[in-house]
Automatic annotation (TrEMBL):
It holds the Pfam family Pentapeptide. This is Pentapeptide repeat-containing protein.
Amino acid sequence: MQLEPNKLEFEMKNISGSTFKKVNAQELDFDNVNLSKTKVNNANLSEMALNNVNASGWRLTDINLSQSCIQNANMSDMKIEHIHLMGTEFSNIILPVEGDGNYNPEGDYRPILFKNCNLTNMEIIDCDITGLKINGILIEELLKKL
């Protein structure tokens, strides 16, 4: 796609409802913006850096996020479908702590689910597996029997 460069700078603008089709939008810089209800389809988001984001309720399908980094994010109720995770690392994944918006003092949180996944060669290292079930089998009870 051969397009003429046209750099735009927006500050204190409301561009809600805008549409971008067949656009080259590499190296964008968003700071303190509301992107809620934004739809992204058939997009290359590789090498993105997302920091201090609320991804709650996102639904990601057919998106290239390879070599991206997501840090300090609320990803509650997010749906990720048909993805490749080779070499992906999850670290320091926690439940909300006191002061976080989703904190529940009773610790009553919805479960995290993996459905119809190929977890061949998956490794779990130094993780709290309290309540972890695989196909209905409580893993901590299974490990006690070993």
